[in-house]
User: What shape does this take?
Amino acid sequence: MNVRLIACRIGFGALLIISSAFAQAVPGDSALVRPLRVTTLPDGFRLDGRLEEAVWADASVVNEFSVVEPDTLAAPPLESTIRMFYTDRGLYVGFHGKQAADTLVARLSPRDQRIARDSFSITVDPTGTGLFGYWFSVALGDSLADGTVLPERQFSNQWDGPWNGFSAVTEDGWSAELFLPWSMMAMPKSGDDRTIAFYASRQVAYLNQRWGIPALPSTTPRFMSALRPVRIQGIQPSTQLTLYPFSAATYDAAEGDLESKVGSDIYWRPSSNLQFSGTLNPDFGTVQQDDLVVNLSAFEVFFSERRPFFLEGQEVLTRGALARRRPFRWMTGSKAF
Assistant: This one.
């Protein structure tokens, strides 16, 4: 009887400790960020990677980074600062990291390449519910990467959004500027106040570390559901119509034949939860070319589908709970040579 009573007390105590730790991991109102709203951008404002305009001095500041790779959660040895403000068109994010000039690592690469170099990344959940998000990365040297993310850490780099990002070397380190348009994000209807969420990280190549805010290392089970909330006002989704036209021509000098081709991808979003997608003469000329591969094996080389029309909304069927429930395997588009 006494043994059972002791076991119950130990189990109850462990439950209290776990519950307390779980409650502390949930961002509360004290973590709420309220970025500056700007009606019109000041004259001369441009994205060049340098936070020299006066509007950045008045923007909201976030700087509570922690070391997440490796997951020590210690305070970083160098200062990192994020500034944010927004307009009716989109969210502006500025980053500045102090670092000695001889330790900066800038490497140019194609889009969506993850290599060891100094970079700044931000993940945005436009709904604030932890169900869907977008991630964006600017590396020192202006190489960009982006994609989507589903709960809790299902990252994909197959989505390319119409956003801008630039970096610059400063006297005491380096900085970056990002412009993220609201129009490229799926945002539900809401009142005047809207809560979104974000996660930001800085990769420091010479230390082989990554610093993040909030502190969400990959060893923790939560990510999308634990992003830091951001309160914005007066932003409402609008009807969106996007066109991606293209043209291509081939001339055969020997035969004197000229072959031309035109086409376009069309996306119409009449509401926040409905989108129509169409394409005319889809062509690979609108996307980045495949890597050159010398195949000396007996197996085919598969290249993933890159055309936007065939990738739009694909994560609904290939990732997340919906894909896991279906008894058959969904085959994504690919090319084999």
Summary: The two ends are 71 Å apart (CA to CA).
